[in-house]
Structures are given as structure tokens and as C-alpha cells.
Design a protein that fits this description.
The chain contains 16 helices and twelve strands. It has two domains: about 190 residues, Rossmann fold (3-Layer(aba) Sandwich); about 180 residues, Glycogen Phosphorylase B (Rossmann fold, 3-Layer(aba) Sandwich). Strand 1, helix 2 and strand 2 form a beta-alpha-beta unit. The protein is an alpha/beta fold and about 400 residues long. Helix 9 crosses helix 14.
Length: about 400
Amino acid sequence: MTATASNRRRGSREQPRLRAAVVTHTLALGGSPRSLLNVAGAVRLRGFTPMLYYGTPGPLETEFSAANIPSRHLPKYKGLWGLHLGFIYRIMRRYRRDNIRLVFLNCLVSYYKYHALAARLLGLPIIWSIREDVHSKRGRRLFRWLRRLADIVMPCSSAIANTLRQRGLDLPIEVVHNGIDVPPLDDTDDADLRRRLHIPADRWVVGCVGSIEVRKGQLDLVAALNGWTCQDGALDLVLVGAPGRKGDADPYLLDLQHTVDRLPGHVRVHLIGAHRDIAPLYKEMDVVCLPSHWEGSSRTILEAMRAQRPLLTTTAGGNPEIVRHMESAYLVSPGDRHALVEGLRYLKRHPRKAAALAQIAHRDLCADYTLSHYRERVAAVIDAALSSCNRR
């Protein structure tokens, strides 16, 4: 073996591949864990290899595998704090073996504090992304861990950032709204959803995409449709999303189904569960409605903008940062059921205006909320976190 070859092999041993941990508590279908695929792209921009760590398996595991992102299943121990200390030590050992040099935490959920503690003990920079309502019970409980452990906090909206500052968070805060891929529009005629649900071509279809939970406000929308008259025409509401933690026995889902049963006959509601490939469904919706009580940076809004579907949503959380009333969407106050039905009525009676709103929304999406925009902004946050850790 030549000296040059020997030095090359010795150099490769001395410079192992640097990895960044991207951490999610679940791989269930949802915007939050799916966003880590985009984070992984930003990590690669800065020369790191992303390594996924997750608590609960789910369907999205195949998507990370297809993106060539290696993964580690690290389920949280249940029980006393002694077991939790064992979990922290297990994470530390795994980080050392995987040569982790940066940790990206994806939500304000208790699972992440153990990764944050492990990273802090190892002296690793920590970026903590916030997508939840900080005023919630869980948000208040985990705020102290966020304050003590993160190097940089990355909320997905200015609304969350303002709340964090009001609560006295004195860490660097970098707002990065969600991004989405924007392929060329597909004009092919595919009415699979209407065929499957037996929806005639002349019926108006309203789509609502999101997990079935109180925060998403589906009950407000269904109850509002009691005010949809025969003169307004036949309407089909398609609810796309999985029920809450208790599945079919979830109290919110049961209330929703009870309200559906009392709707007039010219209004039909279809609960079709969660779908991995959501893009084709939007093409068959005349309007997308997101009646949320709270949102960080809604993926549903971005998907509706991408599909050029007229959007009716609320002024909750970060929604008004992405769309503007009567410019790129129709906005109403959260929980205002009368305003919801009036908004739907307006969009149906003014199809040209509805189409104009959708076109402007698509233009705004291409200008500010593409994947390339998102990855570049996250990459800048990574630079700041590495710099902050070096000064620590």
C-alpha cells in the first residue's frame, strides 16, 4: 500500500461523516412530521447528513426511507423519572455513535425535552421548532424546558413568536413559515373522488382537510351548514383527516357525526379519513374551507394555494400572515358559524372573484412559500445555531 493511500484511509477515519438529528415524536400522517423531510433538505445544504429519530412508528417511515434518510426508533420509556434518566442516557449514546453534531426538534411535545437534555449534556446546538399554541396546557408545561435548553427557537409564524416574547422568552427567535413543493399544474380531468362518493358533477363540493379535532373547527363548519338553504343549491362537504387519539370513540368525532345527522337533505357530508396523497383530492373541490380555532402555519392553506382552489379560512394564529381577506382568501373570525356559511355563499355566488382569489394566492405561494424558500431559511437558522453554540 502506498503512503498516499495510507494517508487517505487514515484521513477518512479522522473525519467521519457529520450528522444532524431530526427528531419527531411520531411518524403518523400529518403536516408536522412530514415537514422534517423539508428540514432534511436544509440540513444537507449545510453539509450534514440527516438522521431521523422517532418515538412512534407510522406510515411516513416509508417516505423518509425513499428520501434516503436513515432512521432510529427511540421509544420513550414510561414510568418514573429514573427510567427517563435511562432514556436520556440511551439518546446520548446513540448521538455519540451516530456522530451527531446538530439537533433539530420538531414540536413542543414532552418527547422532545429528553432529546434536548441529551443534546445539552453533549454540548450540541439545539434548534427547537414550535408549531403549537404556546398558551395550551402542554405549551405552558414545556415552556420552561424550551427556555433552558434551546439555542434558537424556530416558530412557524409571527403569531407564535409574539406569544413567546410576551411570555418572556429571551432566546433568539427566527420565524420560518412552512413551504411546499410547487410542481406545474396538472389539468387532467380526474373525478375519482366524485365517482367514489357518488357525487354528481353539478353538486358543489367543499373540502376540509385536517385531523378531526377541536382545534381544526370541523364542528363549526358542519353546524354552520344548517344555514345552507335549498335556494343555495345542493352541497357536499368532504372531510379529509384522521380522528383524534381515541379513534372512532373520540367524543369530538361523535359530536360531529351527531350534528351531521341533523343536516338538511340537500347537504351531504363525507368523512373519508386520512389520505397520504392529498393533491388529487383538491382538484375536485370547488372551495377549500379551514375553520380552525388555532393554526401555526397551515399546510392545508399552502396545498389549497398550490391547487388554485378558492379558500375560506379563519383569522386564527398564523393564517392572516399567509393569506389576506378578499385579496387571496375569504377570512372570518374563529368560531363564527354565521360568517362561515355567508363566506361559502359568497364564494359560490361570485365564481369569478373566487377564481381571482385563488390565482393571487397561487402567485403568493410561488413568491414566498416554496420548498426552496423554506430550505434556505432553515439553512440560515442552522448557521445561526452553530455560531451560537461556538460562543457558548
